[in-house]
Design brief:
The chain is α/β, with parallel strands linked by helices. It has two domains: 165 residues, NAD(P)-binding Rossmann-like Domain (Rossmann fold), CATH 3.40.50; 186 residues, Dihydrodipicolinate Reductase, domain 2. The protein contains eleven helices and 15 strands. Helix 6 runs parallel beside helix 8. The structure holds NADP nicotinamide-adenine-dinucleotide phosphate.
Amino acid sequence: MLPAAMNPKLRAMVVGATGVAGQQFVAALSGHPFFSLARLCASERSAGRSYRESLRDERGSLRWYAGGQPPAEALELPVESAKEATTDGIDLVFSAVESDVAKELEPRLAAQVPVFSTASAFRYEPDVPILLPGVNRSHAALLRTQQRRRGFRGFIAPGPNCTTVGLAITLQPILRHFGLSRVVMTSLQSVSGAGRSPGVSALDIIDNIIPFIPGEEEKVERETRKILGACLGDGTDGLHIEPLAVAISCTCTRVAVLDGHTEAVFCATTRPAPIDEVKAALLEFGQELGALKLPSLPQQLIAVTDDPYRPQPRLDRELGGGLTTVVGRLRPERALGEHGVKYVLLSHNTKMGAAQGAILTAEQLLIDGYLG
Ligand SMILES: NC(=O)c1ccc[n+]([C@@H]2O[C@H](COP(=O)([O-])OP(=O)(O)OC[C@H]3O[C@@H](n4cnc5c(N)ncnc54)[C@H](OP(=O)(O)O)[C@@H]3O)[C@@H](O)[C@H]2O)c1
């Protein structure tokens, strides 16, 4: 079990600190009992200014998207150029940059310290697990293989794509209790999921639905199979992940919602899946993590609502501080196979789907002995 607080705390550097996901890291690290915010990095456009100044646009308005006010202690920190960033004086990195930037930057930093990433750059490499709290704790062992193969003192630990998060979390208890043979999912993804630059233009999204998000469907299908797969092998040959052999088919769309991805999920199960038993399996999922006392762990990883008009992004996305996946509209599914279940889920894309999810993973790896 973790202590209530650490003294001294592990010093964190946030890369991409000015962006939508990076701001969530800055907000969530403020007052964190184990990690302190030590350094901030962004592009050369922001470097050389204080965090406060780097958030201001040309009209002087503070572009803060993480809710409330930015933490006072962060505002006067200098923003450094990620290009020249070193690991001096830090113990770990939270990275929230686009994949092309992450490709070069993250291995350089991981050579020295652990890097928790929201980017997709390394998710599909054979020695990189995609860690999701409560779902695949055993996959963390692959980090040792990664360290050995790449000569890293740290490691790269990416989280899943924000759309994968709610899907994989809800599929895991269904897989465990009822088996899975086929999954079909259609997402209605929020605008913040596209980030700030270039983001989605208001002219394109208001009064509209955009039926295509490039690369997203392939990412969600591939990542879900990897996350739900088995970590196999031994310490001699190194470990690898055998993806789950289940057909998954996704359609991903962008809708005029600020935060929170909604997904309609249809599952064929290999065994009968009575709705009251599915509900119980979802509700009890992740309860074993409670004993670890992880500071960011919500009371429930999955909440289930019986109200047929929920979940709704505006009403439900902040449940559990934005870390709880909310499931509603649980019904039997018979079109895909003999047995099955269908439901609608809501997952906060910038919180559980990005920064807070990565911090929860870091807490888990701390207790499991990977951070020191
Ligand atoms: N938004 C979400 O809901 C979400 C969820 C899960 C995962 N992610 C992933 O998180 C990452 C960041 O996404 P985002 O939505 O936060 O994007 P964003 O709002 O556009 O922010 C991008 C960040 O990257 C920095 N940056 C840009 N070019 C850089 C460079 N060459 N070197 C160093 N830093 C650079 C920007 O700094 P400047 O301000 O200086 O330009 C900014 O801090 C992406 O990989 C995305 O796929 C996002």
